[in-house]
Amino acid sequence: IDSTVQFPEMDLSKLFKNLPTGDYYWLLTQNPTKPCERNYLGIYSEKEFDTVMAEIKSKVLSYDDASENFMTGYLLEQKNFLLEAQVYYEKAVKLNPNNTLYSNRLKVFLKNYFNQ
């Protein structure tokens, strides 16, 4: 593809929904001299995802619901399940809003991965 061609914004969720399971990489960018930062996508079947989640949950040691959600989020982040990790981090903060570790981690996570 010619890197000087300008493409309109598009909803990639429809494309992702139809991709077979596997690992995908891309270099889409509006600036041809600077590739995009997020260039990996892993597509899992529901069964594969359930297996990964069961493995992660089996490693989580917690003393309450907030810590369980935080640790699950952390392990999901390490495996690059970023949207899922965000959900668990947000649950941890909601369950224990006074825990600065949880709220600070969520802030750093959102800044690093989603520029928020």
List the defining traits of the structure above:
two-stranded antiparallel sheet; single chain; 116 residues; mainly alpha
Task: Describe it.
The protein has helices spanning 13-17, 46-59, 65-78, 82-95, 100-114, and strands at residues 22-25, 40-43. By secondary structure, it is mostly helical. Strands 1-2 form a two-stranded antiparallel sheet. It is globular and about 55 Å long.
Give the helix level as a range of percent: 40-55%
Biggest beta sheet summary: 2 strands, antiparallel
Number of strands: 2
Overall pLDDT level? 85
Q: Low-confidence segments, ≥5 residues, pLDDT <50?
A: none
Name the overall outline.
globular
Rg is: 17 Å
Note the total helix count: 5
One letter per element, helices H and strands E, the order comes to: HEEHHHH
Distance between the termini: 31 Å
Query: What is the SS-derived class?
Result: mainly alpha
Strand order of the largest sheet: 1-2
Beta strand %: 5-15%
Summarize the structure.
The protein contains five helices and two strands; from the N terminus they run αββαααα. The protein is mainly α and 116 residues long.
